[in-house]
Request: fold
Amino acid sequence: MSTSVSAPSDRSARSDRSALSAEGLRVAYGDVEVVRGVDLVVRPGEKVGVVGESGCGKSTVALALMGLLASGGAVTGGVVSVAGGRVDYRDEKALDRMRGSQLSLVFQDPLTSLDPVKTIGSQIAEALRRHNPRMSRAAVRARCAELLTAVGVPEPERRLRQYPHEFSGGMRQRALIAIAVANDPAVLIADEPTTALDVTTQAQVVELLDSLVDRLGVAVVLVTHDIGLVSEFCDRVMVMYAGRVVEEVPSAALFDGAAHPYTRALLGSLPVPGRPRSDDLTWIPGAPPPLAALPAGCSFAPRCTWAQPECSAGQPPRVVVPSPGTTTGEVHVAECRRALEVVASSRSDESTEGEPRG
Amino acid sequence: MADETSGQTSGQTSGQAGAPLLRVRDLRRSYGGPHSYAVLDGVSFDVRRGETVGVVGESGCGKSTLARALVRLDPVDDGRVELDGVDLASLRGAALRRERRRFQMVFQDPFGSLDPRMTVQQLVEQPLAVHGTPPAERARLVAEMLDDVGLGGDFAHRLPPALSGGQRQRVAIARALVLRPDITVLDEPISALDVSVQAQVLTLLRREQRHLGLTYLFITHDLAAAEHFCDRVMVLYLGRVVETATSEELFARPLHPYSAALLSAAPQPRGTRERERIVLRGEPLARRPETGCPFASRCPVGHDREVCRTSTPVLAPAEGALGHQVACHFPGELVAQPLERAATA
Reply:
């Protein structure tokens, strides 16, 4: 509701330094709130990861930012600004202008997001014309070829005339990225862009995204379940659980300095290369709570080995975590009343996972 | 580590005592009529009792075809699959059905592989009924098995739609293991699950293995899981085994350029990566080329070498560790460079 209030111009001073900012974003499907107050700031050229398990709301955040929620879903709160301008999610025309030119989205499955009966060239051209209706035919053609080259598709002239089925999975994902960056957006949101791809192809696509950040200055929001991938690719990681960001941590501090018990548990369940085989993996008992019936207080408390009675009493505080080794200005915040103890235990005890579990 | 290597030697020489449980020789499987293509092109390996052997590779390498051929969901065109000396590839009809309880399979998708109208109890009992276990014994075995996988009590009467992905996969595992199979083929058993649940399923599989003395063939694209879970790993590329070694050996010292690239490409949490990532050029091929090494076109070592384009390397023992085999003209030439640990950009 609070979203429809149109007043705040005092925020602009802050938002013109970010490519994308969301404050207190809330999304609901009917009566069920699936995103429960998410803050996200992305600076130009920055790589931010959003990580979490199925159902945590990470893809919903991506769709909500784009104004592409499925029917029944709505942004119910929060302020979103893109390139300094506030986004009004009821103004379809404005959203149309924003999508592709300021904010772009790349989906997981490149086969279903491309139209099978149109050539790759005509699909890139469509994206260009949408925002540049008066662009000449020759200019469109030249720009299409340039874009395919930029995303590393060899023989662009021939490839433009081909259909999606003639492209491999990795090449389709490259074509989709070409469409997404065709109009020089400030931010590219990539929702599980490499999940459907093989490891060696994934490495190529990640390298491509990295080079686009360098060459075009586009910021990337990488939404994924792969905590290894985000921490390697991104500057900053937001860990989501049950519709909230429970920890925001610089990637460099993630592995040794994660402060939320959920983040630590995720890392503990990961078979990291080189980890001794005798070292049994840990897992999180139970399942995430249904969003329609969240427990009181901290939503992770019922599964948390660090939980105390007061965790279920009220919303956990946002604790600022001092992280050695990170530069000043980098935020490390965990939504847990015992965050500092969690960090201390993981730092004092490097060999075990810092999990008080037998 | 030392005893693992010596175990390897006795299996490899396959004397009477150390005869492997599963012996696969020159397995071939083709698809597609007149212009048929061999998805598996002469795959050979042994699996010893109590061992976990991993098969890793990317899509199209033939790993699922291998799984289906081994458990005879698909016919085998050529080659031998011997389980304790019985050639499964040639079995038909009743004889095949009798042998089936000795080799079981767990599929990737726990949503598609369970009948949604059967209770957990019925699902786990069904394979016993099919193989003629008397009802009284069935009840006992099912109860035991469900307890083992942590789905005892109330869970027994639930239907699959009321279960999470991890719980469903545990039902699928119980269905396979309740028959006490000699060998269990696990085809991507954790890839459809969330990370926190994957660890639970792997731990369960390992515990049951110790408990029941099981033998696993673990098919996966997830290298970290293979390293953690398997005693020995085979790397498959376009239908051929390009390298095989103990997990420790393979992950510490990959000799095939494809293995080296594959291992280095897997994403790793920042600060844990020890070697630089090798990014391959070009596109994966859908088919092996007519001549030469199937990896030659993408290979950082062999793409411009005549011998790689013209002659097909065969799987041969590598120098150094026992049991390490590699199919490459220039094994060990591509090494991912060690990273400086301290610096973070």
Remarks:
- The longest strand of chain B covers residues 37-47.
- Chain B touches chain A at residues 58-59, 164, 166, 194-200, 202-203, 221, 223-225, 227-229, 247, 251, 261-263, 265-274, 277, 279-280, 283-284, 286, 344 (CB under 8 Å).
- Residues 195-212 of chain B form the longest helix (18 residues).
